Amino acid sequence: MNFSSIDTSITEYGAGTIRLVRDESGKRFLSVSENIKELTGDVAPNVYQLTPENAVWMRAQFPWLNPQPLGIKTSAGVGDRLGVATEGHLRAFKETNIAPILAQQSVRELIRTHRTAQIVMDDAMWGVFEAGWREPWGGDADHLKTTEHMREYFDAGFTSFTIDPGEHVVNITALSAEEIGNLFDQFNFSDFGIDPAALLARYETHPASLDFLSSSPADVKRAITKYGKAILFVTKMYFELRGWMAGKEFDFEVSVDETDDPTTPFEHYLIANELKRLGVKWNSLAPRFIGRFEKGVDYQGDLNLFEQEYKRHAAVQKHFDSYKISLHSGSDKFSIYKICAESSDYMVHLKTAGTSYLEAIRVIAQVDPDLFRKIYAISLDHYETDKQSYHVSAQTARMPKLADLSDDQLPALLDHFDARQALHVCFGTILDAHKAEIMADLYRNHELYSEGLRRHFDKHLVDFVRP
Predict the structure, then answer these.
(1) What is the model's pTM?
(2) How far does CA 331 lie from the centroid of its chain?
């Protein structure tokens, strides 16, 4: 076998060096200048596979290969469904002073990609080593709904935990005032640690900096009915995790973005105020904003209204001055980035996931049109089924027909609203059918993919760079 060195990964180790190399197909291996008996999976003298055991050994030798809590520093999460995007991601983060969260995957994505939390962590770590990155980086256990799933990510070494209490949020849109009042009276105030009268009294007045807030007792009852159980769930998850951490620092995010109704600024204030009273310490919070945060496309809604509402959310955030606002489904929302960054004084976390996968599919469209046509056909056939757990509005009737497109027109489908969303949400079905072929193309064209990611994330990050 012939190997070529990845020069950015060359690191001194003892009297020699350790680095990553690629074989003729573009696949990566670990190369050391002298035999190290702890390494496993040799394929040639002093050349080893990127095994889980070797990942453990590497993290023990080089502390910068371990993720860290990032606190309230401006940050961005860059989910990687294929495990080979990290080096390209880090090209975009260089000299931005934005902290990257590189190991990030939701349970939903783990299931559809047939990966584990440990695989996600290891893949990100190898990418960090490949890029020669020495700055802090994070690992986000995304959209956690059970302690069992949280434990898997904890055991894999993740340092940030995003709790999704969406199943505990009550849809109150169709409820009458009487029904809301009854649910409020039935709420578990014992676990909430406060009696109803005292709770109502907490919101008779508001801080002077939040003079735009107004809340009657009916508004408080609506907010508690809507979010009270979610607050209790978040609190339970927080103290469970804090016990496991045994004094270690960690990042904790509260996410209520995947719900039916927008989070009002008053509801945002109440959620933060009650979590603080209950002793929860969190460093980012993801409200459900007005308008539509659909997958893989720009913000859908009135930008002026969004800006007005976001500035109220930012005012609530600044009142507590202890957490970032997190923008979920944040990829490709170029029209709102500057609004969010400036309004929140850059205390913002941008969360992306599928957009890196779409850039991989763009590479396929460029270098392997026959495979891309198969992928596109799957997206047309499976979109109606695969879209069920996502916020999307694409329609297959509006998607261009393959028969009408020449090979050189295929990459442009990644910029077509409907085609882009269908390709985004059908990733699980696509990978089940063609993952080996996709990965082979990406290994052979790793530089094309990395540079595509850099250009794509340059556009995502530029508005979050503090002047």
Answers:
(1) 0.97
(2) 9
> How sure is the predictor about 91, in pLDDT bands with cuts at 50, 70 and 90?
very high
| CATH number attached to the domain at 64-170+206-354 | 3.20.20.70
- Name the pLDDT band for 325 (thresholds 50, 70, 90): very high
Residue of 109, 110, 104 lying closest to 78 (CA atoms): 104
When the pLDDT of each residue in the chain is averaged and rounded to a whole number, the result is 97
The count of other CB atoms within 10 Å of the CB of residue 383 is 23
φ and ψ at 40, to 5 degrees?
A: -125, 165
Sign for the CA dihedral angle at 212, 298, 320, 261 comes to positive
Place of tokens 């008053």: 266
Q: Domain limits of the chain?
A: 4-52, 64-170+206-354, 356-457
| Phi, psi torsion values for 434, nearest 5 degrees | -140, 20
According to the model, what pLDDT value does residue 285 have? 98
Start-to-end Cα distance in the chain: 49
Question: What pLDDT shows up at residue 55?
Answer: 98
Question: For residue 219, what are its two tokens?
Answer: 């508004």
CA gap 197, 187 in Å, rounded:
13
Catalytic residue selected from 80, 253, 267, 441 = 253
Place of tokens 């757990």: 389
The per-residue DSSP string of 334-355 comes to: TTTHHHHHHHTTT-EEEEE-HH
Is 463 catalytic? The answer is: no
Q: Which one of the listed residues 80, 142, 309, 332 is annotated catalytic? A: 142
Cα distance between residue 12 and residue 141, in whole Å: 31
Contact between residue 163 and residue 254 where contact means Cβ atoms under 8 Å apart: yes
3-class secondary-structure state, position 356? helix
**Burial per residue of 215-230, b for 16 or more beta-carbon CB atoms within 10 angstroms, e otherwise:** beeebbbbbbbbbbbb
What confidence tier does 259 reach under pLDDT thresholds 50, 70, 90? confident
**Active-site residue flag, 142:** yes
Helix (H) or strand (E) holding 61: helix 52-61
What's the rounded Cα separation, in Å, for the pair 121 and 103? 5
Alpha helices in 145-302 (DSSP H): 147-155, 177-186, 189-192, 196-202, 217-245, 265-277
Query: Of the candidates 38, 44, 3, which has an alpha carbon nearest to the alpha carbon of residue 24?
Result: 3
Scan for tokens 């975009």, then name that residue: 92
Non-local CB neighbours of 409 within 8 Å, separated by 6+ positions: none
Which residues sit opposite 104 in a β-bridge?
A: 140
H/E segment holding residue 384: helix 369-386
One-letter amino acid for residue 356 of the chain: S
User: How many residues are present in the chain?
Assistant: 467
